[in-house]
Amino acid sequence: xxxxxxAVKSAATIEEIWRGDPHPxxxxxxxxxxxxxxxxxxxxxxxxxxxxxxxxxxxxxxxxRVITDEICAELATVEYRDDNFKRRRIYTAWDNxxxxxxxxxxxxxxxxxxxxxxxxxxxxxxxxxxxxxWERIHYRFQxxxxxxxxxxxxxxxxxxxxxxxxxxxxxxxxxxxxPFEEYNTRRKRPDxxxxxxxxxxxx
Length: 203
Prior knowledge:
By secondary structure, the protein is α/β, with parallel strands linked by helices.
């Protein structure tokens, strides 16, 4: 990212982003490294959000692999929300099984600060590594479910139908009712009663 986008720098304050009254006090930040700013910058922005009574969405995700206890404590003081500004939601990602230790240490830090796992949605890239196996995909998924996190599979290859079916199986919470092997077998044919959202059927 630094090679593509340059060094992290602050572009605007929260008051400069907000359109002012009578618009709602909601801020949707499209920042893929909010806590990559110098501390005095991100702390000042969080203070603006908190003191101004704003609700904020970080749907580009925060990097839980590198967050500190201080960051988690500050983050817990603001009204973080999903992209509809309804549910409490923090977004992050776990793409590489090799980052398991760092990832869950970050989740533990969030929880100690008062941000429970069920508030955390995890973007889960699948199929990027040509050597990735279904065993490794299911391992990451199950580890997150067991921890109370909300996985969000993101197929790298949009033409891979099995990966698409896995995404639907997860997002529809079909895993609470049947194993993926059973769902995958039943969903080989497109459902004629659903709209074509993912290339085969509605989510």
